Structures
1.
Amino acid sequence: MRSYTGVLIGNLILAAFAGLAGPVFLVVAYVARVEGAAWFWVAGAAGVGAVGTAAIPFAAVRSARQEFPRITRRDRAGDTRPAYGDDTSVVWAPRSPGGLAGARLVRADVREASLVRYSPEGGARFTTYGGDHDPAEFKATVGLRLWVHDGEDTGRGPAGQGPGGREVTEEVQVPSLCLSAITAGRLAVLVDPPDAPTPGKVTVLWPRSLLLAGTRTCRVIDLDGRVTDVTRCADRQLEQMRISRSVGGVVMDGDLIDLRRLDAATAARYTAAARDGTEQRAPVTEPGEESRRLAEFLPGDEASFGSVPRRWSRRGGHLVLARFLSLRGRTTFQDHGPVLDTLLRVRPADGSPAYDVVRRLTVPMNYLAVLHHTRDVVLRVSPNGRSLVVDWARTNLLAGVTTAQVVAPDGLGIPLPRRSEALWPLMNLLVAHGVSNPTPVLDLREPRMHAVSDAVMEMIRGAEVRVDEAEEVLHDRLG
């Protein structure tokens, strides 16, 4: 497990080599002074050398902070930040092309998705594109088999297809922030009109697809000041998108649309779209997610139960959960994910009030592919509580990027469902006992696991009982 100190020392050495001119100029200034050179030559060389040498540690600290996901008190969000609720998810993705004037905005269901290629040339370093938030090099090319609903109806039903629909096969480039819309299975698309040069052509609107998928939450304040959560209300959101497109766009304040700030005609159209209050929310993910999953094929940290440095554990280091409230794209990328401006809400383990932090992080692509399921993040807390580090290996396991498995003492393999409620207590149990397990498979037959094997099995049995009870309740409600 890497540490901030190790990363800082490595970057300090690299910065020293890169800034070698600074110390050289100091030596030149010293030699010039000894040789009796004119004072302005000595002063000039000394000044350049001092500036160059002083820049070395600053460059090293800045690089280490960019590379290592460490959070400190300086990252606490100020009171000027917008007040977001715990369930808020604001994702600022790159804009999609506006499309032709006569194109229709409809829903498309993703029947199947496969990764065609993703091969940027940036390596582990950071690559910045001046003014370009959406470079093609850092977008995965994905093959999609879509069912496009050409009519006004959303085509809901057992088969996921309705009257007037058709199947379309496309290869599209997907912004990393929008990968979860594919996994969720609902896209907002434009269909070119019959008189267009390419009649029937389908263009995916990625930011709107995030809304339709539920990755980005959406609330509406009506003219009377009432707030309605319309997240995953697919019919209503499609109609809202059509209205927004027809008037040239409606501004969202975070995840909020305030009808009181719109002109009267547009507000009336939004109000009319809300008259049917009986719409049921679409599922978090459409049936058949396994045929759309891309997380296993995308770069990012490998999911695991995590390593546990013994000194960190013995001195009181522990884990806490945080949640992404806001993710905003930037112009900097790494091969395994984009660099994002993030807002996280940290929930301390001791029950003290949650607090928000603002941090620029590289978020792995495999995590972004399941962002519609969860926005939870695992943080490692230092023994003194002054700093936290994003633990992407544990985060990815908790998010369901990979399926975890427990091998019982008798050798029986027990697969844990993705995002099983047993995962979080299991991680904390291993940390409390100082047991590292840098894989998603927890083998209780190993001697180092003997101290925790009984507790692990009890946690798994408890989680299975709660799942069975929930399924019985759901079955009773559905009749």
Note: The radius of gyration is 26 Å.
2.
Amino acid sequence: MKRANLVRALLALAVVAVSVYLTVTTSPRLGLDLRGGTQIVLETRDSPTTQADREATDRTLEVLRRRVDALGVAEPNIARSGDNRIIVELPGLQDPREAADVLGRTAQLTFHPVLGAAGAEKQEKGEKEEKPQEEERVLPDESGQRLRLGPAELTGEGVENAEAAIDQQTGGGWYVTVDLRGGGKGAWAELTGQAACSPAGDPKRRVAIVLDDRIISAPQVDPSVACDVGITGGSTQITGSFTQEEAKELALLIDGGALPVPVEIIEQRTVGPTLGEEAIDASARAAVIGTALTALFIIVVYRLLGGLAAVALVCYGLISYAALIALGATLTLPGLAGFVLAIGMAVDANVLVFERAREEYAARRGKGARSLRTAATEGFRNAFSAIADSNITTLLAAGLLFFFASGPVRGFGVTLSIGVLASMISALIITRVLVEFAVSRRAVRTRPAVTGISREGRVREWLARRQPDLMRHGRRWLAVSAAAVVLAGSGIAVRGLDFGVEFTGGRLIEYSTARPVDPEEVRSALADAGFPRAVVQSSGEDDVSVRVDELSNAQAAEVQETVEEVGGETEKIRDELIGPSLGDELRRGALIALGIALAAQMLYLAIRFRWTFGAAAVVAMAHDVLILVGVFAWLGKPIDGVFLAALLTVIGYSVNDSVVVFDRVRELWGANRKMPFPTVANTAIVQTVPRTVNTGLGALFILAALALLGGDSLTDFALALLVGITVGTWSSMFTATPVAIELEARSSAPPPRPSSSKSYAAAAAARADRPRGGRRGDTGAQV
């Protein structure tokens, strides 16, 4: 065994061994959409005195962490996202009302002097109401009386701790004891001392305790307190006719600490545990069956080498899974889809290698016993550039998902990136080690037919016999593509786009009812209950979804009660709340991601190939995007974050196909720079059709399994990819290539230089397609 092969074998063994160890010993971190629970995203806002920067957000996070711990949720997770966002994950929590109330309240506790009553008393005496001074505030107390408050003399920062207790001696009910610290003790004594100077019964003898712009208590200072002396000792009680729950919640908020800056809930997602379990089971079935069908397909087509590639696919699964665990990445439902989808990427790399090996073997047939081993080695070497380029463009799309998407869709970008890298390791290292070991065996060398590369395949043989000139009518293909774009675009104009709550803001709740319900009946019941603008749709087989622009947690409980009246016992299986600001941001992010995706792909292809190739690939990508969006518009499918993930993945697939064609164009054109470009392009398409067909079929097996077995939540995702990959296969041959021919006809740039690593097959193909001259019977041989 050569030293390079030995190094690859040891590296492959080490990677697989580490992957097996991590898989056996470590459990994955499941997202809330797989294990059930609630996720709340809060955004910090500027206050009059504090800017909501990274430092203030970090302090807010620590306060929220204490509040979350006090909720008693098992294994909560809280982390900062960006400079001013905090993500709180609460596994198992199905009713987010208490958590949202506790986390969303700022607990801005302040103590104010009362300057007198406002409004009602002066109007009764016929006096003109005084205008509040600039620093005054007017708030109603717990009985509804409006009080004029002076500037805060004490804030929550002077509070040491707070505890709820009940007055068992007098039966006065629940109250909260507040212990003060540091400067808070002196400020409290001064504040109560000033109030004690007013006569009993005067509003000015009261002290207002304000929580989040609401007076929770405004007690009179006891007559025993002396003027200018106040209450000393650093302890006080807050009374206000509290129930036990209200007193404990208030003590929790005060003891947890006042937030340095206000926060706003901009996103809230709740997933029922049954939905998560069903999603895991459905995705696992789809992965197993899809992988088995794909493995069977490549074994039938490539025989022994296909079987070795199937073994490498199993290793790919181990490596991807272990990488997710090692990085501590959260596995989400779209992430599972990305994990399964990346199997298609691994198949693509193997198909590229085996098709190149077939070409090399056919070109070297009869050149000696080493031709089989040499063809396999050359297949890996010559396919490397196309594999690298296509995977890099997919990584660009996955990276854009990570930076511009949010929630579970971001997990799809992470999983897809890991899957792409693992597929390259699987195809270029593991498969190569296995293949080179196999073709070195005497039993295999003497029986080349078992390898699957000794014949060119039925598709290639049929094309060789027919020699079709596909680019003879390039403009006709462009007309067909343009007609398809117009037809799809008319769907956007006629039907419009149904944007999901991620892009519009609002709240979407999905319910599972005990008996089937008619959406119209639910819609009518909700209108009678005070929700006339609720959009009700069927979801899955027996479920129903309700979408409303604005809906509080209390109103959500009313909606569920209404649905229960119609459908019997009802279980909430999904709940998504997106604030309007976040919806605008996500919509902008989606457009930016698409724009950058097109620009980045064009720039990369222009650098790696030619600007004409890059522009042609971008035209094909735009063609695929418009058709896919138009199909979803005609079908009335939602345009949401999962669709965005599918769309960017389709862009990656579209570029993959274009890269393979243009890589072959560059190779053939470099081998014969005098050959007309349309001839070169046509030859490249004909030579790459077997790869396109086999890769497309391999991906279709995976996607069909996802569509049929992946559950309702993955059906639209798989449908988008099925449409996108089908359209992308067409556009790489009949849109991108004709556009490149038209652009090259107007370009003065010279043909590419001959490659220093030109393949034997490419040279043979160039000679075969070279225009014949000279006398009859001239073979074209030169000396």
Note: The first strand starts at residue 29 and ends at 30.
3.
Amino acid sequence: MNESGPQHYPSRRQPSTLPFFACAIPLILFAMLAATSCARISDREGERWPVRPTIEASGFATVLTAPPVPYADAPPPSDRERMSTATAMAMELHANPPEDARQAAMALARKLQEQEGRNYIGVRVIRDPAPRFAFQFQTDAVATLARYTDDPRFAAIDGGRPAAELQPLADEWNARFAPHRLGVGNVYEFDGVVRFDLQVDEATFRSIARAEGWRLPAQIELVFTPSPNADALDPALAPLVRLVPRHDRVPAVTTLALHSGRVILRDGCFRLAAQEGGGEEALVIFDRDIALVRDDAGYLALQAPGTDQPLPRIGERMTWAGPRGVDERDAGVQALRSACGEGTIMSVGTPSSAHHSRVRPWVIDNLANDRGMTRKQVWDALKRCWALIDDAGPDARFSRSESEHCRVPPDYL
């Protein structure tokens, strides 16, 4: 699927008084000029590109490499500077009750479980504002707890439903939602609901629910994702790519293992560059709300909503959390197959620039403190040693040699 759509050019009615060859030559020239304007970036527009993309015979672009956004002159803000007084107070409030209170609460919880049956829901930590344990019952919470204890470290709360009563509801609706890849529901006994964190926005869900004729019980609670970002592609870039491949849903669960690779554009299709020695260039699919833009320097880059990090550029090494599965029922996967063919598809989610992923403010803070340096001195020293590593090639970039080059403990990197 080519999101830019086919290019149409109007035909011209030729004067009947001219000989055939006189008509044919202008037509041929016109067709050549029209095709050329579709298939390449104009000279004027090309002047604004730091490196002009290669235009293939198909008319789509190839971009195999790009430099990362340079590091800033000033170090990133300190983690300590980011932590406001309000944040510190909030962390203090969210501390857990002391250990002796925890042990007493667990002993009481076992007794209530045995003697109160279905009326007892469970125990949890509340903060009002100090942290303490709250015992929850379906009814008569204050009177029920008073029969067992008057410990001021404990509170009584009414409400909720036993987990055993909610679990069949969770099982039923998980089975209904699964074929539509809507999300997974979990039991929240203290709230008395089965809560689904959905992978789709409300409009998408309502459409499916109407088609299925669903009437949801009151104990089912839905949490919708925001509406998708419809602007996947700057219209000026549409002639360069076949599509911007994006999942049709947000991920249900993302594992936190770090993956890396170079995301490239080849003949209008986004791919993962093959490792040294050859191999397949896997097709790439991004998260639902990724957009293709040109950054401030004019490079093709990936933009995700709500980030203040430098945009990763097409052609540079990127990192992402994974592995992520690819479902052939996904409309984005089907569109990618239609536009770019068969082969392995790698979901890279919302990738970051590998160049900038090694910037950690807390490392700068700790090194400055440990070595009696300013944060600017540490930042400049780290940039110098990272430059040495980059010159050594990609194999050194993500190895323990980084800590050796920089004389930084490996745990800091």
Note: Confidence is low (pLDDT under 50) at residues 1-39, 397-401.
